[in-house]
Design a protein that fits this description.
Structural class: alpha+beta
Largest sheet: 7 strands, mixed
Distance between the termini: 98 Å
Number of strands: 12
Radius of gyration: 26 Å
Order of helices and strands: HEHEEEEEEEEEEEH
């Protein structure tokens, strides 16, 4: 064998080794990138469909406390409702009559239901705001969305306005359309020391809504609820 042939074959072998190392490194880096992306998405998306949070300042200074069950009245800053992997449309008439007689997550077939408590553990009379924000909507799934909130025994149903004329859907209060994503904003006034409120939130897709069509199949909505004693002055002035 000629000397030149040996050199050529040796160079080829080294080339294949380099290519092999490059491929292995590329695969490793790709796997590492996929793991990082998975972790980020897990953090961003694995928060269920509904989160309730209380401003930390209210817990520290005002005595406003939030918790899930009467058996454990330890104040919490953040509560999480169980998620539903799939939600088909139903009618409000199908919801159980005892839907407020539970604590924590008590989802049913095709609806999310969550109950928790707000207590004034301070000494002064206070007001607090509760508002729901829409974080993400896919395929216009909010068109037939219903959110029902019980504050103690008082019930209010909220929905997006009609796509035809913008009017409230029958039996509902129209969603707000604030730039920050707020769709519901209400105030609980004159909560005296020792007062206890029970809040139940129910979320479903209303089958009797004219906008409930096959176009919503595969859609997704992500919401969260916040509670605080303060809100921006313009909104407060608007509601008073």
């Amino acid at each position: 064998m000629a000397k030149n042939d040996v050199v050529v074959k040796a160079n080829r072998i080294r080339g294949w080794h380099k290519l092999g190392r490059f491929i292995k490194l590329s695969v490793f880096l790709l796997l590492l990138l996929l793991i990082v992306v998975y972790i980020v998405l897990k953090i961003l998306l694995d928060d269920g469909s509904f989160i309730v949070s209380l401003d930390r300042n209210e817990m520290l200074y005002s005595g406003l406390a939030m918790y899930e069950t009467l058996n454990d009245p330890t104040p919490k800053r953040r509560l999480k409702a169980d998620d539903l992997q799939f939600m088909d449309n139903i009618s409000i008439k199908w919801l159980p009559n005892d839907i407020t007689e539970h604590e924590g997550s008590h989802n049913g077939k095709n609806y999310i239901a969550y109950s928790f408590y707000m207590e004034n553990q301070g000494q002064a009379i206070l007001n607090y705001w509760y508002y729901i924000m829409m974080d993400d909507v896919i395929k216009n799934a909010d068109e037939a969305l219903r959110i029902m909130i019980y504050l103690n025994d008082e019930k209010t149903v909220y929905a997006k306005g009609s796509s035809i004329n913008g009017a409230p859907e029958k039996g509902t209060v129209k969603f707000r359309d604030d730039e920050d994503g707020t769709i519901i904003l209400e105030q609980r006034k004159d909560m005296k020391a020792g007062d206890l409120d029970k809040i139940t939130v129910v979320i479903w897709i209303e089958g009797d809504d004219p906008e409930c069509t096959n176009a919503l199949i595969g859609g997704h909505v992500r919401l969260h609820m916040k509670l605080t004693e303060e809100h921006n002055s313009e909104t407060i002035k608007e509601l008073e």
